[in-house]
């Protein structure tokens, strides 16, 4: 293992020069933000060079009237949100931010991380208007723009969102903002009836309630359903939701504010044990809860979207590995991606899973080889050895 | 050539391979009539397997091909390549599955946008609504990343496609995504949607649909000019209201629409805004009052509030008929699709007025004001010597202005052939090089819609295995692109 040499460019042009120099000497490179999701992806050998975005941390533009912003990749999301909040605006992206709320916008985009607001506003891919990247050969390239509607050129922002540093370094993103809500109401209810609980979120997701978030949780035999209503007049919608839930017999409470959501977000991560993200359908919730119960995992999920995080408690690596394998065989063909886990566990399973469409995987390999023919950027971290 | 046609006929059957010159004229253009092409043949496959077989034949014979849906595109994207094959997907119009529990619908590419809406209604709806929705196909919507009047609130096609089955130019098939979100790997759906037929042919499309809003409120407000109408748009959005749609029409386009539909637009108005709010009644009703108040504060000269669904439908029919109605006031027109940041709208409209005066050509403006997407319609008479050229020159200046104001050359019509010469106003050579890499990953042979999007033709080099510098490069005598 070679010692990692770390450089911290201060401009996109600097970053491009660094990457060009690395390519010229066939040096392996790993892009780095705040490092809050460093353990995600397949474990790989330490690279020779790390390019950190720590000093690419300027909020370049905040166009209040247009509800857009241009951010360098190293801007911590929390800092950007504070700046937007001063103008009564926000970026509707709320993933867990890691220790000291350090997660950077670039790192969040590169891992396509997300939070409860995904329900209404979509994922990183849906919030990005444009992106500037340094390709593995040092080319500085831009795609998209600053307007919310734009179909000129290929949409590289979507390609780079969730690419885990395997296609180069994201140096700048352009995002669409939303006005901050006047009022926020959180609806919550609980039950220990695993049979009927999974139907409850469907009652809400099929109604025209314009919820910002619709999440579920399952732990220690208790299911929690939570919905967030925001806007100028959210009361009527929250009441309508409560009425829809009446047949379930659950006691519904509605509180002002968003306090319960922080914990929900936090449960997508784990400093010990292992977290598996399941890409399912809204109607899979029953099966996923059963699977969680059998494997001793707790669950948080975006109920309307069918995405769940199963969190296994700390245990011996082999125990975790067999629990993950059990989840995969029970939930197949749904994708189960391993996120947080000890290194031995990540080395013992394929974090991305094994079932991929052959055609799609072949295409991904061709994309990688066109962008990074020498395989210098985070080689092996992605699925299929990409 | 005869041999090739026989191969196509063996795949689709003789009656579904069009080769007669007069029959091929049906397919010579898309919605932008001044670009034309004549293919060797047009084939109308019935299934993904037939599409795959057709593409394989083209691949083996090194023949370029163009995929076409309903042909309503407005950038020449579906114009056939001379000496290529046109693959027309309008026969593939099966709705494969409606899964409302999971809010998905799976369709073949030839299904129209409106058919999708009908299939999932009335409880759900499919938000992207291009004006041509009655005939335009979902496959075409995917290729162009189509928007429409309601995308300001709801987003574009790219925000609704969760799965694609695609045939690539080497004849291979790939399944990208499905009903589920966040499958591992690169977001190839995100790259494919909006790639204008240059990356492959989508043969099966999975779409997300959403619950139909409880209520919809629509009004038309009249202003003395586009300046005050433009400011009203900014005031509404700045007030934290996200309307389902805000559309602007200037006096010239209103005049055309009025002649076509007799909707009752006042002849003296300088501009009109169509504003629609949708959502839960409890939220929508008070916000609609706010919108009315903002219009009044911005000195609206009049307002018409839709009292029922019939009146709402008339308002939209009038708006969506705008392009077609232009025939009433001009023999020919040229439509552009530039975008500016919303706050620059008043400035953009003023500059269009100045250019219009300078060139002595009328320009009608009818557009999606919420997202700054202009649709200047440049009126000209092709029988007047030099006018078509002047119209095109004027269009080019409008596009350049959009880019200068921080916008885009196209918001929803696509680059196609029509705007490829403008692409380098927005993107550097390095940006275009990155785009080209995407294209080479999907279509290294350059057979899929080859003359579209990129301003200059480019070839893909081979990239087998790790990159090794060529001796000429090492010697500094050549560079790789």
Key traits:
heterodimer, A: 386 residues, alpha+beta, Uridine Diphospho-n-acetylenolpyruvylglucosamine Reductase, domain 3, Vanillyl-alcohol Oxidase, Chain A, domain 3, 2 domains, eight-stranded antiparallel β-sheet, five-stranded antiparallel β-sheet, 18 strands, 29% helix, B: 481 residues, Alpha-Beta Plaits, seven-stranded antiparallel β-sheet
Describe this structure in words.
The complex is a heterodimer of chains A (386) and B (481). The model of chain A has no long low-confidence stretch (mean pLDDT 96). Helices cover 29% and strands 25% of the residues of chain A. Chain A has helices at 12-24, 77-85, 105-111, 118-121, 124-127, 156-160, 200-205, 235-245, 259-266, 285-295, 317-331, 343-348, 358-371, and strands at 5-7, 29-32, 49-52, 59-63, 68-72, 89-90, 128-134, 140-144, 169-176, 178-179, 183-191, 213-219, 222-231, 252-256, 274-279, 298-302, 307-312, 335-338. In chain A, the strands form 4 sheets. Chain A has an 8-stranded antiparallel beta sheet with strand order 14-11-13-12-16-17-15-18, with helices on both faces. In chain A, strands 4-5-9-7-8 form a 5-stranded antiparallel beta sheet. Chain A has a 3-stranded parallel beta sheet with strand order 1-3-2, covered by helices on one side. In chain A, a hairpin with a 2-residue loop joins strand 12 and strand 13. Chain A is α+β, with helices and mostly antiparallel strands and 386 residues long. With 481 residues, chain B is an alpha+beta fold. Among the domains of chain B are: 95-211, Uridine Diphospho-n-acetylenolpyruvylglucosamine Reductase, domain 3; 213-329, 2-Layer Sandwich (Alpha-Beta Plaits), CATH 3.30.70. In chain B, 34% of the residues lie in helices and 19% in strands. Chain B has helices spanning 2-12, 21-24, 48-61, 113-120, 138-144, 151-154, 188-192, 226-238, 251-261, 281-297, 309-320, 322-325, 345-359, 387-404, 423-426, 429-442, 471-474, and strands at residues 17-18, 41-43, 65-68, 85-88, 95-99, 104-107, 124-125, 161-167, 173-177, 201-208, 210-211, 215-223, 245-250, 271-279, 302-305, 332-335, 363-368, 376-380. In chain B, strand 17 and strand 18 (376-380) form a beta hairpin. Chains A and B meet through strand 8, helix 6, strand 10, helix 8 and helix 13 of A and strand 9, helix 7, helix 8, helix 10 and helix 16 of B.
């Amino acid at each position: 293992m070679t010692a990692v040499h770390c450089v911290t460019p201060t401009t996109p042009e600097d970053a491009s020069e660094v990457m060009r120099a690395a390519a010229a000497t066939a040096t392996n490179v790993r892009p780095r933000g705040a490092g809050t999701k460093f353990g995600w992806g397949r474990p790989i050998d330490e690279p020779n060079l790390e390019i950190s975005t720590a000093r690419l941390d300027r909020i370049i533009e905040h166009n209040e009237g247009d509800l857009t912003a241009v951010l360098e990749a190293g801007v911590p999301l929390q800092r950007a949100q504070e700046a937007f909040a001063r103008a009564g605006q926000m970026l509707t992206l709320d993933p867990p931010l890691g220790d000291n709320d350090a997660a950077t916008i670039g790192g969040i985009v590169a891992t396509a991380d997300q939070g409860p607001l995904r329900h209404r506003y979509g994922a990183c891919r849906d919030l990005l208007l444009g992106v500037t990247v340094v390709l593995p050969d040092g080319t500085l390239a831009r795609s998209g723009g600053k307007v919310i509607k734009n179909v000129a050129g290929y949409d590289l922002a979507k390609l780079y969102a969730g690419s885990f540093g395997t296609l180069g370094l994201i140096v700048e993103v352009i995002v669409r903002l939303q006005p901050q809500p006047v009022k926020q109401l959180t609806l919550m209810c609980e039950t220990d009836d695993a049979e009927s609980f999974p139907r409850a979120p469907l009652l809400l997701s099929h109604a025209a309630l314009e919820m910002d978030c619709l999440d579920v949780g399952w732990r220690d035999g208790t299911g929690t359903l939570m919905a967030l209503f925001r806007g100028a007049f959210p009361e009527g919608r929250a009441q309508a939701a409560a009425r829809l839930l009446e047949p379930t017999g659950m006691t519904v409470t509605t509180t002002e504010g968003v306090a319960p959501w922080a914990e929900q977000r936090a449960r997508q991560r784990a400093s010990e044990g292992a977290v598996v993200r399941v890409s399912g359908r809204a109607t899979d919730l029953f099966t996923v809860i059963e699977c969680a119960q059998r494997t001793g995992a707790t669950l948080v999920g975006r109920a309307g979207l069918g995405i769940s995080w199963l969190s296994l408690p700390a245990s011996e690596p082999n125990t975790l590995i067999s629990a993950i394998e059990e989840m995969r065989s029970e939930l197949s063909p749904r994708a189960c991606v391993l996120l947080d886990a000890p290194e031995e566990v990540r080395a013992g399973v394929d974090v991305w899973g094994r079932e991929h469409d052959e055609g799609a995987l072949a295409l991904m390999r061709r994309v990688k080889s066109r962008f990074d023919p020498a395989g210098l950027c985070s080689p092996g971290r992605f699925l299929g050895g990409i | 050539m005869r041999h090739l046609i026989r191969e196509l006929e063996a795949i689709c059957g003789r009656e579904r391979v069009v080769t007669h010159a007069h029959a091929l004229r049906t397919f010579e253009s898309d919605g932008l009539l001044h670009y034309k092409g004549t293919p060797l043949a047009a084939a109308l496959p019935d299934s993904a397997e037939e599409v795959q077989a057709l593409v394989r034949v083209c691949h083996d014979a090194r023949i370029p091909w163009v995929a076409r849906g309903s042909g309503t595109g407005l950038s020449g994207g579906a114009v056939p390549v001379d000496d290529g094959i046109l693959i027309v997907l309008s026969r593939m119009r099966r709705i494969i599955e409606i899964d409302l529990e999971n809010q998905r619908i799976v369709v073949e590419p030839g299904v129209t946008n409106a058919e999708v809406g009908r299939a999932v209604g009335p409880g759900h709806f499919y938000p992207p609504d291009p004006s041509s929705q009655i005939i335009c196909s979902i496959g075409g919507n995917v290729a162009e990343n189509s928007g429409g009047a309601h995308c300001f609130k709801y987003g574009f096609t790219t925000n609704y496609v969760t799965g694609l089955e695609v045939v690539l130019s080497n004849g291979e098939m790939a399944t990208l995504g499905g009903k589920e979100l966040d499958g591992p790997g690169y977001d190839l759906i995100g790259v494919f949607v909006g790639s204008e037929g240059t990356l492959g042919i989508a043969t099966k499309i999975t779409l997300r649909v959403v619950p139909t809003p409880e209520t919809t409120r629509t009004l038309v407000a009249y202003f003395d000019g586009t300046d005050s109408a433009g400011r009203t748009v900014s005031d509404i959005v700045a007030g934290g209201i996200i309307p389902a749609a805000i559309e602007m029409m200037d006096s010239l386009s209103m005049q055309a629409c009025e002649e076509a539909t007799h909707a009752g637009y006042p002849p003296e108005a300088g501009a009109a805004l169509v504003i629609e709010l949708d959502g839960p009644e409890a939220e929508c009703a008070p916000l609609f009052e706010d919108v009315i108040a903002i219009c009044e504060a911005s000195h609206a000269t009049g307002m018409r509030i839709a009292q029922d669904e019939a009146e709402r439908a008339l308002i939209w029919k009038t708006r969506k008929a705008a392009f077609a109605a232009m025939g009433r006031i001009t023999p020919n027109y040229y439509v552009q699709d530039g975008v500016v940041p919303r706050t620059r709208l008043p400035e953009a409209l003023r500059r269009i007025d100045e250019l219009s005066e300078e060139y002595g050509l009328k320009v009608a403006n009818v557009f999606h004001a919420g997202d700054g997407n202009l649709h200047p319609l440049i009126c000209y008479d092709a029988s007047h010597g030099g006018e078509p050229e002047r119209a095109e020159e004027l269009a080019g200046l409008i596009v350049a202005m959009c880019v200068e104001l921080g916008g885009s050359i196209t918001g929803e019509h696509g680059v196609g052939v029509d705007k490829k010469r403008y692409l380098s106003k927005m993107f550097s050579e390095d940006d275009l090089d990155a785009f080209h890499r995407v294209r080479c990953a999907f279509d290294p042979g350059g057979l899929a819609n080859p003359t579209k999007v990129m301003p200059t033709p480019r070839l893909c080099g081979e990239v087998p295995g790790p990159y090794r510098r060529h001796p000429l490069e090492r010697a500094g005598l050549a560079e790789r692109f």
